[in-house]
Amino acid sequence: MNNELLIVILTDNNWLYVGLAALMREMVCLPLCFSTASLPHIINDAGRVLVIVDSRISLRDEWSNLNELRAQRPDATLVWLTLNITGRIFPEVSLGDRVLAQKQDITALHHALIRILRCPESPAECIEDIGLTQTERRLLPYFVSGLRMNVVSRLTGKPVKTLYTHRQKIVVVK
């Protein structure tokens, strides 16, 4: 396995794994749940590792395997598959990771993944720092949770008008 490429599909969605494994059938694909006891040894034995991350991980808030993968294989290429329900919120350590829409034409997804595999520096959408202030970082989970502003105001102790101002800065400027 030393010179071979390993594709790790980090998801709790078996259908997503089966679909990606069928799409990339010429390569070795390994399913990995968001949280398991330990990582398989094959990950350390692989020559190159591509990690495809289901963005639902942000809804589940289970980061243990992703953090361990990053620690064991800092050379791995990470690709986030985004959905409308998960938005485009990523951990700060994800700067530079690739982003692909999960729901797109299957041929386009295959070509995008192959392009990333062949040339990890190829032009593709990457996660960038959008320069949120500490206050905006603290408030962001409330804004994407769907809570009404008066509820967020009570939870944070900030006036509703201030919350609208912060939300507007995040949405428009950033």
Give a verbal description of the structure:
The structure is a single chain. This protein has 174 residues and is of the alpha/beta class. 43% of the residues lie in helices and 16% in strands. A five-stranded parallel sheet has the order 2-1-3-4-5, covered by helices on one side. The mean pLDDT is 84.
Give a quick rundown of the structure.
By secondary structure, the chain is an alpha/beta fold. The protein contains eight helices and five strands, in the order βαβαβααββαααα. It has helices spanning 14-23, 42-45, 57-60, 64-72, 106-118, 134-145, 149-156, 160-173; strands spanning 5-10, 28-32, 48-54, 77-82, 98-101.
Layout of helices and strands:
Layout: E1 5-10, H1 14-23, E2 28-32, H2 42-45, E3 48-54, H3 57-60, H4 64-72, E4 77-82, E5 98-101, H5 106-118, H6 134-145, H7 149-156, H8 160-173
Parallel strand pairs: 1-2, 1-3, 3-4, 4-5
